[in-house]
Design brief:
The protein is mostly beta strands. An eight-stranded mixed beta sheet has the order 7-6-3-4-5-11-10-18. Strands 12-13-14-17-16-15 form a six-stranded antiparallel β-barrel.
């Protein structure tokens, strides 16, 4: 990852808000002018581009695995609005509403990989053309190489049932429930255990701690809270008689960067 525009340094707050909260954005999905639902996402950057990251099913309106319509009315969104945060004067924050079409002449405007090599991830590429605007991104926090392992505490950030606190996301505590190095059913997803709600899919899953093991198995203790973005929250595993309903999953952040690097658009997606 490149670039860090946070004027307060990697551990700073802005207007009393933690950077991961400011980099998380609330999405509003529409079919023409009919509002359908809210969802979660977050901003990252690389070189000359901003990227809005969310869950693929938020844009397709279809379950990633079964490809069946999620909505009982079979409505598929074709337009979105995203409330994002940018740096203002000094260390202040200001909010923008991004609006756009999800499909152009039937073709998705987002990057994705609807295969076992990808995940339930959609990425919208935004050129850095607006002079003087610098969005708050997850790059603005310290991306440490903390090791993620089963049993570790993490947080899923998002907007459960559309809930926010003055525009900022809710931090839901979850624990990593499977070994991150192990695929599940051939997919690169990692299980989490913790109560989450509709509307949180597409938001970031992060570690926010002051001590832990690095990828080189070195144990470090920091003077400040150090953050690692683990991935994109995919949603809950639906409860049945055998499960409590607290299991969910995330897709590793590495998959996001692979999709971006290769500008992937893998798999057929219907806009109607």
């Amino acid at each position: 990852m490149t670039g860090a525009s946070n004027p307060n340094g990697p551990y700073g707050f802005a207007d009393g808000i933690q950077i991961p909260s400011a980099a998380t954005c609330k999405l509003f999905l529409f079919r023409e002018n009919k509002f359908l639902s809210t969802a979660s996402g977050f901003m990252i950057e690389s070189e000359d581009w901003w990227y809005l990251v969310t869950a693929l099913h938020n844009f397709t309106g279809r379950n990633y695995f079964s490809r069946k319509c999620i909505s009982e009315t079979l409505a598929i969104p074709n337009r979105f609005e995203a409330r994002v945060t940018a740096w203002g004067e000094g260390s202040s924050l200001t909010r923008f509403d991004l609006r756009g079409e999800i499909f152009s002449d039937g073709v998705p405007i987002f990057l994705y990989d609807w295969s076992q090599n990808g995940g339930d991830i959609a990425v919208i590429k935004l050129a850095k053309t607006k002079e003087g605007v610098s969005f708050v991104t997850m790059n603005d926090v310290a991306f440490k190489n903390w090791t993620a392992f089963a049993g570790l505490e993490a947080f899923a950030l998002g907007y459960p049932s559309g809930l926010d606190v003055n525009g900022t996301p809710i931090w839901k505590r979850v624990s990593i429930a499977s070994e991150p190095s192990q695929k599940i059913g051939g997919f690169r997803k990692v299980l989490t255990d913790g109560l989450t709600y509709q509307g949180m899919s597409g938001g970031p899953v992060i570690i926010n701690q002051c001590q832990g093991f690095t990828d080189d198995r070195e144990y470090l203790i920091g003077k400040e809270m150090l953050i690692r973005v683990l991935g994109v929250y995919g949603g809950r595993i639906e409860a049945d008689k055998e499960r409590s309903g607290t299991l969910g999953f995330y897709w590793p952040i590495e998959t996001v960067w692979e999709i971006i690097a290769e500008s992937r658009q893998v798999g057929s997606i219907e806009c109607d």
